[in-house]
Input
Amino acid sequence: MKHQIHEFFAYAKENKMEFFNEACLQMELAIYLRARCPEYKVQLERPITDFGIRSIGGKKEIDICIVDASENRIAAIELKYPKNGQVPETIYSFCKDLEFCENLLGVGFNKAFSVLWTGDDKFWKGKAQGIYELFRGGKSIHGEIVGPTGNKARKAKIKGIYQSEWKDAYADHRYLCIETLS
Output
């Protein structure tokens, strides 16, 4: 599935696709995956309660959910498309998505991915300090990540060890795709 996500961004570049917002990105990725993986159902905003899951990581829905005909949990994809600044909060939110994806692996999903697409170079350029180290400085995303603003009691607890490896896309955009580990 990770391969198909990378192929999607290459396809988007080749076809000069425009994503105006996260919903557009979500829809286009789902259409692409549906065409490439006809043996699976690709669903948007699927409630976790459909799988008998009451609560994990504070989220109630999976951005893109991929299941087979028997409802076996093939993959989950969480997306971010920040356009309005709030870089440190988006980095924290991405970490919360990683935590959510790790939890989905714990309840029967085979694979889970966190994807961020942006044209805002503040995500990968600038000083690598504080929460920015996770995206700019090569520091692993791991352990307890504290919310950067507001209530410092907000925490993402990441079990795996992940590296931010930005991939060039097009039109000054880059993307980050992390496959979570169980």
About this structure: DSSP finds four helices and eight strands in the chain. The longest strand covers residues 73-80. The CA atoms of residues 48 and 54 lie 7 Å apart.
